[in-house]
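Researcher: Quick sanity check before group meeting.
Model: Go ahead. Protein one:
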Amino acid sequence: MKVEDLFSVRGKVALVTGGSRGLGEMIARAYVENGAKVYITARKAEVCDALARELSGVGACISLPADLSRMEEVERLAAAIAEREPRLDILVNNAGASWGASFSAFPETGWDKVMDLNVKSVFFLTQKLLPLLEAAGSADSYSRVINIGSIEGIRTSHLETYSYAASKAGVNHLTRIMAKFLAPKHIAVNAIAPGYFPSKMTAGIAEEDTRAVFAGTPMKRMGNADDMAGIALYLASKASAFLCGAVIPVDGGLATTA
């Protein structure tokens, strides 16, 4: 098989949550530029709409803003996709939030907000979209669910982001159990565990903490858009046809060599 066919997403229908910026934008852009029809969703409608307009100059990109921390919004988004599409080939559960505070001062709101968006929405959006994912999958070509975990769910970080780290460990393991029970439905579930990439979240990290991250990363840099595009295209294409329940660190070696 030719390389371009092995990694192709042309003609596929994808939904990328948190798709208006950061990792979600990198993934959505990679899919659109390679021929997929991509729906993006994010809480801020104006940002989501603006990116969809930009990417529509390259391919097919549709904005469907939603706040996935709320169950009624999860259900509304799933219904909106079902009204427009008979199938969904690729679901990227990327929407996420973080919260930092000392152990003694960490608030309940900082726990619940992160858990609801980072873990609860991953499970329930996939559940609500199950009929469309099943419609897209077959024994020869599984549909794909790609969860965005984090290396912070693998390693013990120097940052006091308790709910974020716990949520991403949850996503990493939720990926494995979803993979086990959805594979018989011809849906392959895998996860990306990113390290440090340019984003609003990492921009809020103190300079000394960023220096510590670079010092501990064998490749001595942040990830970039091509790094994320490569793994996202791999997990959505025929190239990863036999992957099921994998959690793949994309971190320049930060978590895997410490």
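Researcher: Fine. The other one?
Model: Protein two, sequence then structure:
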Amino acid sequence: MSTDLPARHDPGAFDLARDAVPGLPLTLVEQWRASGRTAADARRLLVPHVTTGYSVVSDSAGLTKLSRSLGLLEVLALIDGPKRVLHAYGTGAGGRAVGVWAADNAQMFHPATTDAGTLLSALLRVQDEIGRTCGIRVGIGVHLGDYYDLDGGLYGAEADAVEHLAENHTEGGEIAVTEAVAGRLPAGHGFVLRRKDGHDGPLGAVYRVLDGPRAGGAEPVDGRWYPIPYPAAFYEDLLRLGPQDAALAAVLAEKHLRERTVVLVERGEPGAAAGVPEVALLTGLDLSARMREIGLRLLPAEGAVEVKVAGPLAIYLFDDPGAAVPFALELRAALAEAGTTCRIGLDCGPVLSGRTPDGGRDVAGAPVNQASKMAQDLAAPGVVCLSEAVAAQAGPGGFTRVRHTVSGVDLTFYQG
């Protein structure tokens, strides 16, 4: 079934809080489960996965204002441009893409042998090109450190810290580097750095790169796209969509969007016993794997599909909201029985979903955003939230109507 796009989207939600990783490192989880689960076991299992290098993370700025009147496909086209530029110059400087670049986030990894000046020159050119050719700006955070490379994703305290830096402490057009990066620049390097006051944290001092030598032109060295979170056929169509091309956007929406019910689940974090960072990491992966096992066991054989389990999030798609609500309630009960709390949001409407080139699945659309806002921003642990659209089709029996304001937007939904 095809449907028209909603006239407006709340873009805070195109920045869904989730790590850009392709899947769970299940082999490592099995090894952890078979161990004594001590701090020594955690460190022993993770040592082979340590990698040292530069993590480069970008996050869009000003998306809310720019996309107030845009449809889903126009927003996806808007956030695509910066990702293509970053991938071209990042691979040109010897980096590799990390994970799947979902929502408006992107991440590159450069080995420790990379010259810091070469990397910063490439990033200055990235910001120049984004400012010249794209309708949205991005902030970029860079850190040289140690990470755990697990199933194509970067994990660990330093990985989390540089993501936090990029997402919460950079502005559009900015490059923010940690002191570990600045310390690799030789004397007379030619870059203009200014310390960011009040931003010292787990990664030490942070500096803005204000100016410096620029890299030359670049194309992706492997000649491919960045790791897109879309089916390849859709992405080829998306590349045809120009600014303010509402007619083509409507045609592509009719072709690619389908009415579905989204079930978004956020599990609780590991308890106090996981205070050792390595133990917390493996315990969190174990909890995600258990959530996936329980979800697949409860998922109906027809009319429903698991989209992904990444970090503390799981997302499922249903053809019928009447089947999605019982699934959410059963999943909550099963997770509680296994000792894990969760928060769940359900909404229905037109979404883009399908197989990505790496063989996984992903989904984008206003229902994902609404489900995320209800579950991640507003729900208490153990609560299931139904949007008004889901409640209208599946019935609100046993749920209470509530109203909240988030980012200046009034939301009315049902929780129970």
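Researcher: One line on it for the slide.
Model: DSSP finds 13 helices and 16 strands in the chain.
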